[in-house]
C-alpha cells in the first residue's frame, strides 16, 4: 500500500518556497512526482535543489486565478507552506472546500488557530506540537501524553 | 447588540461612532496600541490591544459574549481567520469580513463567513456603470447582487421622458418606487404619475433586468 502511494504519479502543488516548501518539493520531485511550486518572490526558488525537476510559478498563492491557471482543480495534493499561518489557512481552505483537492496539508505554527481547519478534513502540521513531542521523547525516553 | 470590531483605522472609527449612536455595545481590537487608546478615549469603549487573528486576543476582548464580529484588517487572510475563530471557537452568530480581492467574496461565504464586502468591487461596479450610463446616479447591489437598487436621471433623450408610469415597458419584477422632482419633492410612484424631464427616479429590480432598465432611461428615443 505504502509502496503504491510512492509509485503513483501524483500531481502536487506546493505553495511557499521557504526551507520547508523547497525541501519537500525537492524530495518529492526526486521520487518522480509532478511538482509545481509557487512563491511571491522569484529569488526564493534558488533554495530548490539542483535536481528539482518540477515547475515554478511566481505569484500570490491565494489568488484564485493563479491557482486555476496551475490546475488546482485537477491536482492530487496541495501543501501550504508559506511563513504565515493565516495565508496557509486561506490557501488550504480554498483547495479543500472550493476545489475539493483530495489531500491538503498545511503548516500552522500557532496551534490555537488549527481550530479553523478542523471541520474541513485538512491535515494540519504544527511544528510546535512536533517539537514538544520530540523534546518529551528525549526527556522521558518515550512518548508521553499530557 | 454586542459588536466586536477587529482591525481597521478610519473604517473602525466611523463604524464605532455610528454603531454607538444606534445604541450598540462596541468593543475594538487593534494591533496599533496608540490607536486603541485613542478609540477607547474618544468613544468611551473597551479597546483591546493585540493581534485579532490570535484566539486568546479575541477571548480577552470577550468574543464569547459577542453577537457580531466585524473583521476590517488589510489582509484578506487575516479577516478569514478572525471570522472562523469567532464562529468555531466562540460561537459568534454573525461574522462580517471586508476583502480586497472581489473573488474572495464567494470564497469566504462558502467557507462560512456570513457577510463579505469588497470595496474594490463596489468601486469598480460604480465606475463601470457610470462610464457607460450617464443617467445612472446611484447603484446599490443587494443580496449578493441578485437585486439592484438604482437611481436614474430622466433627460430629454430618455425613452421614458414624459411617459406615464403605467405605459412604461418595465420588466415584470421591476418597481419604480419614487420620483424625486426639483431635488426635494418626493412622489410615491403610481401608475398615473408622469415622468418629467430632470426628474430623478428610484428603481428596484432584479440584476438580470438591469440592462433593460438602463436602456429605458438612456437615449433610445
Describe the overall structure.
The complex is a heterodimer of chains A (146) and B (221). The N and C termini of chain A lie far apart (32 Å). In chain A, 36% of the residues lie in helices and 18% in strands. Chain A has a six-stranded parallel sheet with strand order 3-2-1-4-5-6, sandwiched between helices. Chain A is α/β, with parallel strands linked by helices and 146 residues long. Chain A is globular and about 45 Å long. In chain A, strand 4 (77-80), helix 4 (85-98) and strand 5 (103-107) form a beta-alpha-beta unit. Chain A has a single domain, classed as NAD(P)-binding Rossmann-like Domain (Rossmann fold). A six-stranded parallel sheet of chain B has the order 3-2-1-4-5-6, with helices on both faces. Chain B has helices spanning 10-21, 33-43, 55-60, 76-88, 104-110, 119-132, 210-217, and strands spanning 2-6, 25-30, 46-49, 68-71, 94-99, 115-118, 136-142, 147-153, 175-181, 185-188, 200-206. Chain B is built from seven helices and eleven strands. Chain B has two domains: 2-118, NAD(P)-binding Rossmann-like Domain (Rossmann fold, 3-Layer(aba) Sandwich), CATH 3.40.50; 133-217, Alpha-Beta Plaits, CATH 3.30.70.1450. With 221 residues, chain B is of the alpha/beta class.
CATH architecture of the largest domain in chain B: 3-Layer(aba) Sandwich
Count structural domains of chain A. 1
Distance between the termini of chain A: 32 Å
Largest sheet of chain A: 6 strands, parallel
Low-pLDDT runs of 5+ residues of chain B are none
Compact description:
By secondary structure, chain A is of the alpha/beta class.
Reconstruct the topology from this structure.
The complex is a heterodimer of chains A (146) and B (221).
Chain A: H1 2-7, E1 11-15, H2 19-30, E2 34-39, E3 55-58, H3 64-69, E4 77-80, H4 85-98, E5 103-107, E6 123-125, H5 127-140
Parallel strand pairs in A: 1-2, 1-4, 2-3, 4-5, 5-6
Chain B: E1 2-6, H1 10-21, E2 25-30, H2 33-43, E3 46-49, H3 55-60, E4 68-71, H4 76-88, E5 94-99, H5 104-110, E6 115-118, H6 119-132, E7 136-142, E8 147-153, E9 175-181, E10 185-188, E11 200-206, H7 210-217
Parallel strand pairs in B: 1-2, 1-4, 2-3, 4-5, 5-6
Antiparallel strand pairs in B: 7-8, 8-11, 9-10, 9-11
